[in-house]
Amino acid sequence: MAADSPFVVDADWLQQRLGQPGLSVVDASWYLPAHKRDARGEYDAAHIPGAVFLDQDAVSDPESELPHTLPSPRHFSRFVGTLGISADDTIVVYDGPGFFSAPRAWWMFRIMGVYQVYVLDGGFDNWKAEGRPVTAEPTKIAPCIFHAQFDESRVVSLAEMRRIVENRESQIADARGPGRFAGTEPEPRAGIRSGHMPGASNIPVTALSRDGKLLPVPELRELFENAGIDLARPVVTSCGSGVTAAALTLALETLGHGDSRLYDGSWTEWGGLTDTPVETGNGEPAKP
Q1: What InterPro entries does this protein map onto (predicted)?
Q2: Given 111, 161, 239, 245, which residue is catalytic?
Q3: Where are the domains of the chain?
Q4: In which region does residue 172 sit, left (phi positive, over 0), alpha (psi from -120 to 50) or beta (all else)?
Q5: For 155, phi and psi rounded to 5 degrees?
Q6: Which fold has domain 8-150?
Q7: What is the pLDDT of residue 34?
Q8: For residues 205 and 70, what is the distance between their CA atoms, to the nearest angstrom?
Q9: Is the confidence at residue 286, as pLDDT, over 50?
Q10: How far apart are CA 76 and CA 55, in angstroms?
Q11: pLDDT at residue 288 above 80?
Q12: Is residue 239 flagged as an active site residue?
């Protein structure tokens, strides 16, 4: 395992266990259009032997108008069951760069009742660069039944988020890039205002890792504290659509912070409304 986080495993740990019964390896890669990467195409071309592909779009709530909305326990169970993943498995999830979309899958499995789930430190890009085994052979899947035990207390709704912003009862950590947070760069989705929720702190997901590997605990702690996050108080994590917010959740739990929740609608929901308060980088209300 990786030295600093109980939720991360290194490449040596995983390679030594490939093919063992009860181990599920999951490619949870997902990218923004700006990345110009095709997650499914890359998986089909090369993946860790035995890995299945978890489509972040397809696993989302099919009835939601928002992207990447957390699915119901029933939908999630049916979806991952068709991938041959059991709630009793040891699950290792990965993405290309290391800490971008994989933590979202980690978080979903966690709130669905699986605790032996880990993120691969360094991701698939480092795995390939180190000459570790890859394959283009389709993974043989034996569908199974996945029993979810959903913990809805870890998810923040829009109504709760309105109250939190108004009363400041929890801190808000936003994983988007500095330009999007400050409102100096446009949102990638049409019709979404730029800026951030009043009182939010910006901790870009890209700051959590170095060369695709999670920062050591002292550096993670300094990162959050420098952003104005008091680790003794509750935190709500957010991002563009709920994907990279989970990386902040993983980092917080690595630091021993046990009182964090994730705003699943994130900025796509908040910034897409006309009656939610929005601030720009200088703290002034954003123009409608």
Answers
A1: Rhodanese-like_dom (IPR001763), Rhodanese-like_dom_sf (IPR036873), Thiosulphate_STrfase_CS (IPR001307), TST/MPST-like (IPR045078)
A2: 239
A3: 8-150, 153-270
A4: beta
A5: -115, 135
A6: Oxidized Rhodanese; domain 1 (3.40.250)
A7: 85
A8: 20
A9: no
A10: 12
A11: no
A12: yes
- Classify domain 153-270 at the CATH topology level: Oxidized Rhodanese; domain 1 (3.40.250)
Cβ distance 54 to 40 under 8 Å?
A: no
pLDDT digits 0-9 by tens, 184-239:
999 999 999 999 999 999 999 999 999 999 999 999 999 999 999 999 999 999 99
Q: What is the amino acid identity at position 87?
A: A
pTM: 0.95
Work out the number of other CB atoms within 10 angstroms of the CB of residue 22: 11
